[in-house]
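Input structure tokens:
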């Protein structure tokens, strides 16, 4: 009888220990699918999957976890590309806040969120805010180690485009 209890307890512990990684894999695979669809510019298909990824991240890790921020960033980017600016701005603002409070945040995701928010600021005629966001993105892209020179170039290009639009030569 004692052996049966130990085996049962071991089974329960094993079941709980495997439940969390299974959810992690689901988020990872869903996130990869969202990125793939986004690269194909299939935003309408990516949208419900991005929402689901955000729900999984928040349920498993909480609303202020980096996975939630990554999901908010992707969902915000999709809304931006669907020209749903208010939804995009809300999600991206939350993502930026989480990224800025976590030193271990993925820098590429953080920079993308800042650049997306800056694009929204330009669209709603807030060039000063856009400049601040582009400058933050550039500063973050330049921080050593520079692992993504394409991201650095994109940040420079975004700020240069703004200055051209504002005639700040």
């Amino acid at each position: 009888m004692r052996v049966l209890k130990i085996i049962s307890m071991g089974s329960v512990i094993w079941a709980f220990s495997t439940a969390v990684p299974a959810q992690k894999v689901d988020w990872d695979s869903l996130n990869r699918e969202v990125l793939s669809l986004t690269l194909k510019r299939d935003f309408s298909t990516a949208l419900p999957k991005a929402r689901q990824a955000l729900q999984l991240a928040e349920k498993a890790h909480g609303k202020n976890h980096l996975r939630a921020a990554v999901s908010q960033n992707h969902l915000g980017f999709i809304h931006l590309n669907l020209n749903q600016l208010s939804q995009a701005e809300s999600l991206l603002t939350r993502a930026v806040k989480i990224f800025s409070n976590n030193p271990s945040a993925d820098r590429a995701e953080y920079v993308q969120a800042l650049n997306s928010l800056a694009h929204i600021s330009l669209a709603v005629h807030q060039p000063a805010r856009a400049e601040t966001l582009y400058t933050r993105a550039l500063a973050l892209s330049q921080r050593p180690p520079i692992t993504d020179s394409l991201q650095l170039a994109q940040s420079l290009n975004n700020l240069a485009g703004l200055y051209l639009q504002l005639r700040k030569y």
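The CA atoms of residues 5 and 11 lie 10 Å apart. DSSP finds seven helices and no strands in the chain.
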